Amino acid sequence: SGPSLAVTVPAGGVAAGNSVIITFAMDDAAGTVSCSDSVGNLYTVDVDIRNISRVRTVICAAHNVTALPSGATISVTHPTVVARAMSASEFSGLAATATLDRTATGTGSSAAPTTAATAPTTQADELLIGAIGVEGPVGDTFTPGAGYTALTRAGTTGGGAATNITINPEFRIVAATGTFVADGTLSVVRQWAAALATYKAAPPPTPTPTPTPPPTAT
After folding, report:
1. What is the DSSP secondary structure assignment for residue 41, as one 8-state letter?
2. CA–CA distances in Å: residue 151 to residues 15, 49, 73, 81, 138
3. pTM recorded for the entire structure
């Protein structure tokens, strides 16, 4: 138990200009959740959803980051709880500013967690991040929703389901505007809180015309 949790940046580090997106789940408790890293990048809490008395799920993100070297730490600070889990992923190609577009959430008790649908996205090329926080051990299995790819899961184990928390992150890249959900399938019926954030891709670079020299009269 405790009030913070951290991961260490692996070999290779995080490149300058990229994005770090954190998915976090904890025993439900009221209070502030925030994210940070050891080089001082600024993180925003983009989604925060509570399944009251069961599980709370949060997505944090920092974009256009200062490079993080191997051994740097990425941290979540939160109300003190017994069970919590986090996963951090690096992405390139996102817009440097005004990156967050749409969000959606959902809570329930079933083997089919899902958010509500987002409002229509405002541009075609976007990254979707789903975060399915579950009151249950990491030994349960999770199958990502249609079109999604699993990111690294994290969770606790030991004791009964109610003493454990698992975070199941997933991502999807889309190339058309629309309304989207984050969903998946659990191997066991569990209490869950699901979050979805969509992030704008950077616009393609504007071509620079090459001037043509004027012809020389002969």
Report:
1. -
2. 19, 20, 19, 24, 14
3. 0.93
